[in-house]
Amino acid sequence: MKIRRLSTKDLADVARIQRECYSGHFIESVESFAAKLSAHADFSFVAESGGVAVGYVVAFPWTFGEVPELGGLDYTPAPDTDSLYLHDLAVIPAARRSGAADRLFDAVLGAARSAGLERIFLVAIGTASRYWRRHGFEVVEVDEMLERRLEGYGAGATYMARAVAT
Question: Which of 16, 32, 125, 145 has its CA 20 to 30 A from that of 22?
């Protein structure tokens, strides 16, 4: 298993992996992923097995207490942010027990530590909060405004966070 930085050359693989992992509402356009990478590519990685992309993670600096628009085209972070938003981590079903997800997450944490970021947060979809709890994330209470924004991520979306250094 090889982990390397995600680039715009990998966007066709990202689209393929999304189709294998998600349904309708959660599939984002190649343009949206390109916007995320152009805003800050240092925190996004791809997992390859036998030269084939089997998973990816996309993360970028963002203000804690907010969520970026799902499928948006502008992901310019605030200049003074101290947090990293883990937007998406996906591994194709055939590679789910290969350790790819853990290795992708470790790459994100290492990049966040190197950048001096203090916190990492995400929106867990469906039952994914159980997975993220195993990685030290805790549910964050949200205000009414953030709760309305989370509706764009589907029913049961959960705002979660943890310290980068544990």
Answer: 145
String of DSSP letters for 7-33? -GGGHHHHHHHHHHH--GGGPPPHHHH
The percent of residues in the chain predicted with pLDDT above 70, rounded, is 98
What is the Cα–Cα distance from 158 to 26, expressed in whole angstroms?
15
User: Do residues 63 and 26 make contact, with C-beta atoms less than 8 angstroms apart?
Assistant: no
Helix segments in 75-134, DSSP class H: 100-114, 128-133
Contact assessment for residue 123 and residue 142, using Cβ atoms and an 8 Å cutoff:
no
Closest CA to 103 of 159, 47, 30: 47
Q: What is the mean pLDDT of residues 25-37?
A: 89
Q: What are phi and psi of 77, to 5 degrees?
A: -80, 155
Residue 43 and residue 36 in contact, taking contact as beta carbons nearer than 8 Å: no
DSSP H helices, 40-99, are: none
Distance between CA 11 and CA 29 in Å, rounded? 9
CA distance 55 to 65: 27
Phi then psi dihedrals of residue 122, to 5 deg: -160, 170
Residue with tokens 């605030």: 78
Amino acid 49: pLDDT:
96
- CB of 86 closer than 8 Å to CB of 120: yes
